[in-house]
TrEMBL record:
Transmembrane segments: none annotated. Coiled coil: none annotated. It comes from Lotus japonicus (Lotus corniculatus var. japonicus). InterPro entries: TOPRIM_DnaG/twinkle, TOPRIM_dom, Twinkle-like. This is Toprim domain-containing protein. Residues 252-341 form the Toprim domain. CDD domains: TOPRIM_primases.
């Protein structure tokens, strides 16, 4: 067992970890350190414990420890940030390596008192990040390595399985006026939002976060979050399944779209037999042969829904009208069988552009127009 595998995070954070983990970052003499803003290591969004002198010993030369700005552009740090983002842990530039930070836990949100209960640490060379929520009711802990292709399996093992998760335990609440207005502007009705159990994250911040609940057989199996500024992330432990899978359990004809809001849009046009892919479209179509099921990681959600999809006779692909959307349609058709697939063509918006997706058509042309477009889907051809 490596030294890192034996590391555990505790509350209170003990100094015992530091002799092993103390960074070999640059240190400056006190005279040169005056220009360093204290905000660098302690802000509202990432409450660092670095200012607690008991937890961070001074470098031996008595200088103040600062961290190079370049660290945030380093490939490992970038990779860690991306991975943490997927887990719902938001890092900003104050979350410097080698220090401990108290963050908001994405699993329990810090409970009723909303304390920053997640002790978070990136080791000094950015090899990995680790964390533990010190609220006993939660205890979420894990670790990810920058260089691994996959998130560390231990992360999932430590996370609460979604089968036992409820909307309440995720901190979800009914949509408030702000987000209802956001959806109204997109012509998504409260009835549709309610039937699809669209929620919001309860949070004291005024930035509202939409929570698309993923359900299978009526059970919560995952959650995808989206801010109104179009930032997405997935709840930890989320099953890779299509969004709205229960809506196609008895369907012989289905529609696949590229986003949750497009699924809701099609419901406004009268189609409930619609599912959305859970992740974004690929940049381009792969030229390689289809990988075997177990290696087809980017499309695991299709394999996980195989029994639903196998019995479908006709599949209408209504992905976005851009290059990634077309690449997604092709990748789906490759896996589902071109002969079963049909394609919706989004109409021209003006001389130079086309409508982008189902929601845009709903918004600018109305539900009837959207319905007609789906009904006029054409047999899929790869040359699309
Ligand atoms: Zn927690």
């Amino acid at each position: 067992m490596s030294v890192y595998q034996s590391l555990r995070l505790h509350r209170p954070l003990t100094q015992s970890l530091f002799p092993k983990l103390l960074p070999r970052t640059r240190t400056y003499a006190a005279t040169t350190a005056v220009s360093v803003s204290p905000r660098r290591i302690c802000t509202v969004s990432c409450h660092s414990v670095a200012h607690a002198t008991t937890t961070v010993p001074s470098p031996p030369d008595g200088g103040e420890q600062i961290v190079d700005d370049d660290i945030f552009d380093a490939p490992r740090m970038k990779m860690l940030k991306q991975k943490m983002d997927l887990l719902g842990i938001k890092l900003d530039n104050t979350c410097v390596p080698a220090l401990y930070h108290n963050l908001r836990c994405p699993k329990c949100k810090g409970g009723r008192s909303k304390e920053r209960s997640l002790s978070f640490h990136i080791i000094s060379d950015c090899e990995f990040a680790m964390w533990r929520c010190f609220r006993p009711e939660c205890g979420w802990a894990g670790r990810v390595f920058a260089d691994d292709m996959e998130l560390d399996g231990k992360v999932s093992a430590n996370a609460k399985p979604y089968g036992q998760t409820t909307e309440k335990s995720l901190g979800l609440e009914p949509l408030g006026p702000q987000l209802l207005a956001y959806f109204k502007e997109r012509l998504i009705s409260e009835k549709t939002l309610s039937r699809n159990a669209v929620r919001q994250l309860s949070d004291s911040d005024d930035k509202k976060v939409i929570a698309f609940t993923y359900k299978q057989n009526g059970l919560l199996v995952g959650c995808k979050y989206r801010t109104v500024e179009k930032r997405f992330w997935q709840g930890k432990g989320t099953d890779k399944v299509l969004y709205g899978i229960d809506d196609i359990s008895h369907a012989s004809e289905i529609i696949i779209v590229e986003g949750e809001i497009d699924k809701l849009s099609l419901e406004e046009a009268g189609f409930q037999n619609c599912v959305s892919v859970p992740v974004g479209a690929p940049g381009k179509v792969s030229f390689k042969d289809l990988p075997p099921r177990e290696k087809d990681t980017a499309y695991q959600y299709l394999w996980n829904c195989k029994e639903y999809l196998d019995k479908v006779v006709r599949i209408i692909l209504a992905t976005d009208n851009d290059q990634p959307g077309q690449a997604l349609a092709e990748e789906l058709a490759r896996r589902l069988g071109h002969e079963r697939c049909w394609r919706v063509h989004w109409p021209k918006k003006d001389e130079s552009s086309c409508f982008k997706d189902a929601n845009e058509v709903l918004k600018y042309m109305g539900a009837d127009a959207l319905k007609r477009m789906v009904e006029n889907a054409e047999p899929y051809t790869s040359a699309d």
